[in-house]
Write a structure and sequence with these properties.
This protein has about 230 residues and is of the alpha/beta class. Strand 3, helix 3 and strand 4 form a beta-alpha-beta unit. The termini are far apart. The chain has a five-stranded parallel beta sheet, with helices on both faces. It has two domains: about 130 residues, 3-Layer(aba) Sandwich (Rossmann fold); about 80 residues, Winged helix-like DNA-binding domain superfamily/Winged helix DNA-binding domain (Arc Repressor Mutant, subunit A, Orthogonal Bundle), CATH 1.10.10.10. The protein is about 50% helix and about 10% strand.
């Protein structure tokens, strides 16, 4: 990535220059962050991500020319492996889950940025997932009881759990998964809890991110040769 060991390189993608300036000013006092580039359009943002290879991108969800959700998907399809933190004015209850499914690692509301952005960036940079407590509660619903952690990695999943994880990565709801595989909703929840434990995820938000990653990997894998 484009930074030294002490400083995290950040790319700001927002179609309002005043917002980018405000973010740069907010982050200027943090010794562990460095703004390495800015972009005001969808295409400029993709080009900058490829050219600068930042450690993290702070991304507006509503770019003037196209959706930030599309930007995340295209950046991932293009091979961008940096962390992505969405900064948006749109209700996290409606869009946080969509952003995580697309391939982001965090979601911050713009009206909360001054209080939470730096902490959210550090959490995302260090490999975590950031959502506000309210958004986390919406996703978590009723989290399953804690259990001892099995080996990390997708290889520890059963065939059925792999199918369900792939379906979760495709945006399917519990009801849709149950109908596809002929299961009860309760059985799907049990599988989801097992997946969460086996992958070592601390929250259901992390399950969504891992599911999206799993689906991208599986869909990109070459098909076996025809016999």
């Amino acid at each position: 990535m484009g930074t030294d060991r002490q400083r995290t390189a950040l790319l700001l993608v927002d179609d309002h220059a005043i917002v980018r300036q405000g973010l740069a000013a907010l982050l200027s006092g943090e010794a562990d962050f460095e703004v390495c580039g800015e972009a005001g359009t969808y295409e400029e943002g993709l080009a900058a991500a490829e050219r600068l290879r930042p450690d993290c991108v702070i991304l507006d969800l509503s770019l003037r020319d196209r959706s930030g959700l599309e930007w995340i998907r295209e950046a991932r399809d293009n091979g961008f492996r940096g962390r992505i933190l969405v900064l948006s004015m749109h209700d996290e209850g409606l869009y946080a889950e969509k952003a995580l499914r697309a391939g982001a690692q965090g979601y911050v509301m713009k009206d909360q940025a001054e209080e939470t952005l730096v902490a959210a960036l550090r959490q995302v940079r260090d490999g975590g997932i950031y959502l506000s407590p309210a958004a986390e509660a919406l996703l978590a619903g009723h989290p399953p009881p804690a259990d001892e952690t099995a080996p990390d990695g997708f290889e520890g999943l059963t065939a059925r759990e792999s199918e369900i994880l792939h379906a979760i990565g495709g945006g399917m709801t519990t009801r849709e998964i149950a109908e596809r595989f002929g299961l009860s909703g309760r059985t799907v929840d049990v599988h989801r809890a097992s997946i969460k434990r086996k992958l070592g995820c601390a929250s259901l938000a992390e399950v969504l991110v891992r599911a999206a990653d799993y689906k991208r990997r599986r869909d990109a894998a070459p098909l076996p040769p025809a016999l």
